[in-house]
Design brief:
single chain, alpha/beta, Rossmann fold, 39% helix, 17% strand, binds guanine
Length: 289
C-alpha cells in the first residue's frame, strides 16, 4: 500500500512556488497577493484561513485577512467584495464558507470577479472547467488531481466513484475525473445520500473519492482489493486524549480500508495540505496574468 503523502507533496510544490515568486520579485514586480474574507467565528473556518495565511508567508506572497462579525449584512459583504474586485494590488481573493444563514452565499460568489475568483466557485469558472477550458479549478479538486499526477496514478479507463455531490468537491471532482486530461478519462459514478446499494457500486471502483463529511463512512467491506482511495473528509471529532480536545477524522475508516488499497491518502496530511497549496497555485496563475 502506497501512502499518498499530501503534506510532503505540498511542501515540494510550495518550494516550487517560492522559486517562481523570487523570480517575479527579481523582475521588479510586486509579490502575488491573496486576500481572504472571514465572517464569524466558526472554529474550522478560522483554522483553514489561518493555514492559508501561513502558506502565503511561506512562499513569499502578500496576504490580507478581512475579518467581520457574523452580524454584518449581505449588502455590507457585497460592498467588501466589490472593493476587492477593484483593488489592483490584489491578485485573487476568497470568501470563506460557510457564511451566516442570513447571507446568501450564491449572491456573494456571483459578485466576485471571475478573474480574481481563485477558489474557482464563480459560475463562469465552474462552467469553463466543465467545458475543459482554461479557468480556476477549485482548490480541493485541483489538489487531488495534483496528487494523482505526481504519484503517476493512471486514471484512463478506470471506474472512479465519487461519494458526495457538493459544489466545492464532489461535483467538480466528478467532472474533472471524466474530462479529457492526464488525470481524467475515467468512467465516473457520482453517489450521494439518495444512492441505493452504495456498497455494490463502491466495490466496482478502481478509484474512490470520499467527500461526504461522515467520519469513518467508507469501511473495508466497501472497497475492492487494489483500489486507490482519496479521503476528502475533515470532520472534527471530540477526543479527550487530543491536545485540542478534538481530532480530524476522514470519511474513510483508514485501518480497515488501507490494507486493501494500492494507494490511499491519510487524514490529516493527505488532501488538506494540497487544498491550501492549490489556492496558492491559482493565486500565482492570476498574478502571472
Ligand atoms: N469552506 C470549505 N472549503 C472551502 C474552500 O475551499 N474555500 C472557501 N472559500 N470556503 C471553504
Amino acid at each position: 500500500m502506497l501512502l499518498l503523502d499530501g503534506k510532503k507533496l505540498a511542501d515540494e510544490l510550495k518550494a516550487e512556488i517560492k522559486t517562481e515568486v523570487d523570480k517575479i520579485i527579481q523582475s521588479g514586480k510586486r509579490a502575488p497577493h491573496l486576500a481572504a474574507i472571514l465572517v464569524g467565528n466558526d472554529g474550522g473556518s478560522l483554522t483553514y484561513v489561518g493555514h492559508k495565511v501561513k502558506a502565503c508567508e511561506q512562499v513569499g506572497f502578500k496576504s490580507t485577512l478581512l475579518q467581520f462579525d457574523d452580524s454584518i449584512t449581505e449588502e455590507f459583504l457585497l460592498n467588501e467584495v466589490s472593493k476587492l474586485n477593484a483593488n489592483t494590488e490584489i491578485d485573487g481573493f476568497i470568501v470563506q464558507l460557510p457564511l451566516p444563514k442570513h447571507i446568501n452565499a450564491d449572491n456573494i460568489i456571483m459578485a466576485i470577479d471571475p478573474q480574481k475568483d481563485v477558489d474557482g466557485f464563480h459560475p463562469v469558472n465552474v462552467g469553463k472547467v466543465t467545458l475543459g477550458m482554461n479557468a480556476y479549478i477549485s482548490a480541493t479538486p485541483l489538489g487531488i488531481t495534483k496528487i494523482l499526477e505526481r504519484y503517476n496514478i493512471s486514471t484512463e479507463g478506470k471506474h472512479c466513484v465519487v461519494i458526495g455531490r457538493s459544489n466545492i468537491v464532489g461535483r467538480p471532482m466528478s467532472i474533472l475525473m471524466s474530462g479529457q486530461s492526464k488525470t481524467g478519462n475515467c468512467t465516473v459514478t457520482v453517489c450521494h445520500s439518495k444512492t441505493k446499494n452504495l456498497k455494490e457500486i463502491t466495490l466496482q471502483a478502481d478509484i474512490i473519492i470520499a467527500a461526504l463529511g461522515k467520519p469513518g463512512f467508507l469501511t473495508g467491506e466497501m472497497v475492492k482489493e487494489g483500489a486507490v482511495v482519496i479521503d476528502v473528509g475533515t470532520t472534527r471529532v471530540n477526543d479527550a486524549t487530543a491536545k485540542a480536545g478534538w481530532r480530524l477524522k476522514g470519511d474513510v475508516l483508514f485501518d480497515e480500508v488501507s490494507p486493501k488499497c494500492s494507494a490511499i491518502t491519510p487524514v490529516p496530511g493527505g488532501v488538506g495540505p494540497m487544498t491550501v497549496v492549490s489556492l496558492l497555485l491559482n493565486t500565482l496563475k492570476s498574478a502571472k496574468g
